[in-house]
Amino acid sequence: MNDKKGEKVIILAIESSCDDTSAAVIVDGEIKSNRIANQSVHEQYGGVVPELASRAHMANIVPVVKSALQDAGVTQSELSAIGFTRGPGLLGSLIVGVSFAKSLALSLDIPLIEVHHMNAHILAHFAEDPKPKFPFLCLTVSGGHTQIVRVDDYLDMTILGTTIDDAAGEAFDKTGKILGLPYPAGPIIDKYAREGEAIYTFTEPKVDGLNFSFSGLKTSIMHFLQKQMKKDDQFINNNMNNICASVQARIVSILLNKLTIAAESSNITQIAIAGGVSANSGLRNGLIDLCQEKGWNHFIPAFQYCTDNAGMIAVSAYQKYLAGQFIGQEVTPKARMEM
Questions:
Q1: Which string of DSSP letters, residue by residue, matches 159-186?
Q2: Contacts of 330 (CB under 8 A, 6+ apart)
Q3: Pairing of strands 136-141, 270-274
Q4: Which CATH entry fits the domain spanning 10-123+307-322: 3.30.420.40, 3.40.50.11930, 2.40.160.50, 3.10.450.10?
Q5: 58-76 burial string, b = 16+ CB within 10 Å, else e?
Q6: How open is the CA angle 140-160-47, to the nearest 5 degrees?
Q7: Partner of 97 at 20 to 30 A CA spacing, among 2, 53, 118, 293?
Q8: Does the predicted model carry a pTM greater than 0.85?
Q9: What is the distance between the alpha carbons of residues 164 and 207, in angstroms, rounded to a whole number?
Q10: CATH number belonging to the domain at 132-301, selected among 3.40.440.10, 3.30.420.40, 3.40.50.80, 3.40.630.30
Q11: CA atoms within a 13 Å half-sphere pointing along the CA-CB vector of 116
């Protein structure tokens, strides 16, 4: 492999875990570019279609990588290593990103760095200031995961609680489907919620410890709407704002109630959120209010680092580069992957 000692550490990062193709360049810990290609093909199906996602990744990855390098003013020959999302995610989507990363690294004779998708969401907090101090707690919320993680160092994380069924993002999207909203429904529910009031009450699931459950909440919402529609077939259309505000308020309260327990039991006052759902205005405002009330420090990523993006993969890859954590060409993608 090329000897780049004494030179700048320049890493190309690739993210392809679901339906966003992204590439980023980080130079000595500073993100220089973060390109993302979204896939609109899934909207008509109400969710991500794995085969269509992998096809779109194959079409997008070369131009996205080219754009990321151009934005950063970097050539392939200057790269120190390539970081990539190994998992978790959709296997077909991951295969595209992993295969591309392996091929390019082999052709350039530079190291490969595997990155865990959820670890990267947490390390997105180090993409720009302000940055949390160790130890801190991070509530990671996305379409596939809901976790409370204790972060003691860049590469030292412990899951304190996780969902036992649906994730918070999944609860938003499934509710949106019931309401007849297009996919992805989370941002649309958030938009309607800002114009409504949380006047409907949904039961908070009782789950031991710091774990979460959202499947029962989804069922509760469905039964409520079915009951109301029998009385008034225009109930959803006439009350969309208040329904969305009520659903969002309950999901946010479930998340923050568990986060409060975790913070108080661990005496940690550095509190962060990450993942796609951390872009939700109700959750962001709720965290700010909670931390102001408790005297805690809160950390919320910029919007570009909330959803799936290669910038967060680059931050994680940079830390693993400094630690010398490289992986060989035998690496394969993992749809399920432990932190």
A1: EEEEBSS--HHHHHHHHHHHHTPPSS-H
A2: none
A3: parallel
A4: 3.30.420.40
A5: bebbeebbeebbeebebee
A6: 35
A7: 2
A8: yes
A9: 9
A10: 3.30.420.40
A11: 15
Q: What is the DSSP letter of 322?
A: H
Q: Residue 309: which of 75, 114, 85, 87 has the closest Cα?
A: 85
What amino acid occupies position 61? I
What is the domain partition of the chain in residue ranges?
10-123+307-322, 132-301
Query: Is the separation of the CB atoms in 160 and 208 below 8 Å?
Result: no
Instruction: Fill in the amino acid letter for 209.
Output: G
**pLDDT for residue 6:** 62
Tokens representing residue 33 in the block:
């570019």
Cross-strand partners of 116? 87
CB 42 within 8 A of CB 58: no
Average pLDDT for runs of 10 along the chain of length 339: 67 95 98 87 64 90 98 98 97 97 98 97 97 98 93 98 95 94 93 98 92 94 96 97 98 98 98 96 98 98 94 98 98 91
Contact 178, 226 (CB under 8 A): no
User: Is the CB of residue 274 less than 8 Å from the CB of residue 140?
Assistant: yes
Q: Which two tokens stand for residue 329?
A: 């060409």
Q: Which H/E stretch holds residue 158? A: strand 156-162
Question: DSSP H helical segments within 232-295, as ranges?
Answer: 235-238, 240-266, 281-294
